[in-house]
Amino acid sequence: MAQTIRIANAELAVEVSTLGAEMQSLKTTDGRDWLWNGDGAWWTGRSPILFPIVGKAPGDRLAINGTTYPMAQHGIARRREFAIVEQAETACRHELVSTPETREVFPFDFRLTLEHRLDQRRLSVTATVENTGDTLLPFGLGFHPAFLWPLPGADGKPHTVILDNGAEPAVIQLEEGLIGKSLPSPFKAGRLALSHALFDNDALVFPEGAGTGLTFAAEHGPSLHFTFENLPNVALWQKPGAPFLCVEPWHGMAAHAGGTAELVERPFTVALPAGDTMRFGFTVEIKD
Fold first, then answer.
1. What is the pTM of this model?
2. Distances (CA, A) of 206 to 21, 143, 236, 263
3. Nearest-angstrom CA–CA distance, 143 and 127
4. Tell me, what's the pLDDT at 1?
5. What integer is the mean pLDDT of 227-249?
6. E strand or H helix that includes residue 115
7. Are 127 and 112 in contact (CB under 8 A)?
8. Half-sphere exposure of 64 (CA within 13 A, CB side)
9. What is the dihedral angle through the alpha carbons of 55, 57, 63, 67, rounded to the nearest 10 degrees?
10. Is the model's pLDDT at 144 over the cut of 90?
11. What is the mean pLDDT of the chain?
């Protein structure tokens, strides 16, 4: 059975489930929850971890060295029970290690650790992947947190996403969840005015150029500022019309439409040597 634990400081409180090491809530001390609540009428996710793939595989089949394995969108970790390896007042760590069952669909040895840590009004979420086997470990990893849109107390206000680097990165058109053609950027001088129509054809995926930070903000209202570590790809997504926005930093992307199912051919796939570890993370700071 999944277990939920709570960490808190004087500014924030976070709940994390052992199922997928998935954050369940992110509350300020005034009781406002900034995280999506997982209402199944729209989307049951809240903040899943994406591993060992980000996005879809053709026909939900992943090829590894010519052998195919069943692999649902965004991988296996989000549906696995993690062990609690640390629980302190303001931080917790969960761990998933490979098992005979995971090796049936992903034939590698690994340790995936998720840490949630609070510092004033800032939450840091860090994933560490360790290759515990004796061969290269190929994988993708991403975060998929969903935040309320409109932000708390900002009903009726226009919302924007503003890139720290002021760029206008090209966007990828998804074709049934797979990587399609590149299109001109919807950003203008680093600014994107949000509307539900932007997501009529699935997520906005920015393979490169979105930088290492952005702000999701309500006009003359609250905002969330994000920073990214070792996560070169960024996506924005909502179920069309839903009251949330997912801000998704990734290292790895879906397979190419019409392309191979081989894991190593997917864009931005990591190849981690035996015995090595790699760290990925994001922070989000709440500003009123």
1. 0.97
2. 26, 14, 9, 20
3. 9
4. 84
5. 97
6. strand 110-119
7. yes
8. 19
9. 130
10. yes
11. 97
Structure tokens that stand for 93 in this block: 């760590």
Closest by CA to 61, choosing from 253, 270, 203, 255, is: 255
| 3-class SS of residue 266 | coil
Residues written for the chain: 288
User: Which tokens sit at 272?
Assistant: 């981690």
Assign 60 to helix, strand or coil. Answer: helix
For residue 100, what is the enclosing H or E element?
helix 100-103
Report residue 285 as tokens.
Answer: 């700071």
Q: Are 55 and 38 in contact (CB under 8 A)?
A: no
**Long-range pairs for 212-215: beta carbons < 8 A, 24 or more residues apart:** 212/164, 212/165, 213/163, 213/164, 213/165, 214/161, 214/162, 214/163, 214/164, 214/247, 215/160, 215/161, 215/162, 215/164
Task: State both tokens at 145.
Answer: 């947190």
Where in the chain are the domains? 4-287
Helix (H, G, I), strand (E, B) or coil at 102: helix
CA distances (Å), origin 221, targets 2, 132, 218, 287:
36, 46, 5, 9
Output DSSP code: residue 278: E
Residues ≥6 apart with Cβ < 8 Å to 218? 150, 151, 154, 157, 158, 159
For range 205-214, the mean pLDDT: 98
**What is the model's pLDDT at position 55?**
97
4-287 placed in CATH 2.120.10.80? no
Cα–Cα distance, 170 to 185 (Å, whole number) = 4
